[in-house]
Design goal:
With 329 residues, the chain is of the alpha+beta class. It has helices at residues 68-85, 107-122, 129-139, 192-198, 205-225, 228-247, 258-273, 296-304, and strands at 2-10, 13-17, 22-24, 29-30, 34-38, 44-51, 58-61, 64-65, 90-97, 151-155, 164-169, 176-182, 277-280, 287-292, 311-315, 322-324. The protein binds ligand DP6. Ligand DP6 binds at residues 15, 18-20, 28, 34, 108-109, 140-142, 192-193, 196, 282-283.
């Protein structure tokens, strides 16, 4: 018999200032603060039911029952929730996303944000937004940014209590678009978790971390003032700096494909022509082209003409993770 059941929906987010490297790998206390926008239209829906009859946690992702590391990562968050709630029961977890996992579209962010919100509610806990963000962070760092809505800042903090994300502006504050050029939708070979652990092996990591406070302040101000011309170069600087750290780690992480580089050059040329667009890239080959809503049709059309672009998806700023009434099982 289920003793508590809840379902949550969460969105992935795209970072304008990136999270790369941890001060504490186990707790996911990041090396630097970061700032992101939630992505409307891409959703992960997760149902959690605690059940006294279960002998162990059952984890079904995208219709497939998981074992090994994927299951253990979910079970670890359930253990935290059980400890907070004083609960012994195991849980059944079912989760579905409407976009591909592991291809630079941040499925772990929406996944662990939805899991944090659903599992804590199913356990009868009433956690506030900061506590939910901290819980989500322990599952996947960037997931803490998918708990609040709109434009979100994750203050790095120094420990579990001080490392969480909060909204700096609601989704309707600025009608940006993320026009995503999909150039590779296969599962990446080195995931972010392993990547973060390599950051310290790059001689460039300390330099990037030292440059973050200035960049973050410029991006935060640009978002609050809706100043695209001020935003664009800083977003690109930080994406390139993160990829420079990745590429100079030991072993190196090279996520780009030829089409990734073609898009980088194209976007820079388009901006020089006067189109309000800039790029950012996560731990994958796909390129997120941020632009003002009025430029999104033009950017989409131009991206589709670049060889190697398999598909284009357009997302707008999205809201917070939330509980819903419909369950997946
Ligand atoms: C490149 O949050 O996916 O997308 O905590 O190991 O799950 P884990 O890492 P994750 O790292 C995201 C890295 C990034 C940049 C960003 O989203 O800030």
């Amino acid at each position: 018999m289920p003793i508590g059941k809840a379902t949550a929906v969460a969105l992935p987010n795209i970072a304008l200032i990136k999270y790369w490297g941890n001060r504490d790998q186990a707790l996911r206390i990041p090396a630097n603060s970061s700032l992101s926008m939630n992505m409307a239209g891409l959703t992960t829906t997760t149902t959690v039911a605690f059940d006294d009859a279960l002998k162990s946690d059952v984890v079904v992702l995208g219709g497939v029952e998981r074992s090994g590391p994927a299951r253990d990562r979910v079970a670890k968050m359930l253990d935290r929730v059980r400890a907070l709630a004083g609960l012994a029961a195991r849980a059944r977890v079912e989760s579905r996303s409407n976009f591909p996992a592991g291809a630079g579209l941040a499925s772990s962010a929406s996944g662990f944000a939805a899991l944090a919100v659903a599992s804590s509610a199913a356990a009868g806990l009433h956690l506030d937004e900061a506590a939910l963000s901290r819980l989500a962070r322990t599952g996947s760092g960037s997931a803490c940014r998918s708990v609040p809505g709109g434009y979100v800042e994750w203050q790095a903090g120094t420990d579990d209590a001080s490392s969480f994300a909060f909204s700096i502006a609601p989704p309707e504050h600025w009608d940006l678009r993320d026009v995503i050029a999909l150039v590779d939708v296969t599962h990446k070979s080195v995931g972010s978790t392993q990547g973060h652990a390599l950051a310290d092996t790059s001689p460039l990591h300390a330099g990037r971390v030292a440059s973050i406070p200035g960049r973050l302040a410029r991006v935060r101000a640009a978002v609050l003032e809706r100043d695209f011309a001020a935003l664009a170069p800083v977003v690109e600087d930080d994406a390139l700096a993160m990829h420079a750290v990745m590429m100079t780690s030991h072993p190196p992480l090279i996520y780009w494909q030829p089409a990734t580089i073609a898009i980088i050059h194209a976007v820079r040329a388009w901006r020089a022509e006067g189109v309000s667009v800039c790029f950012t890239i996560d731990a994958g080959a796909n390129v997120h082209c941020l632009c003002e809503a009025s430029a999104s049709d033009e950017v989409t059309r131009r991206l589709r003409s670049i060889a190697g672009v398999q598909d284009v998806r357009i997302v707008s700023p999205g809201g917070p993770a939330r509980l819903i009434d419909d369950h997946l099982f």
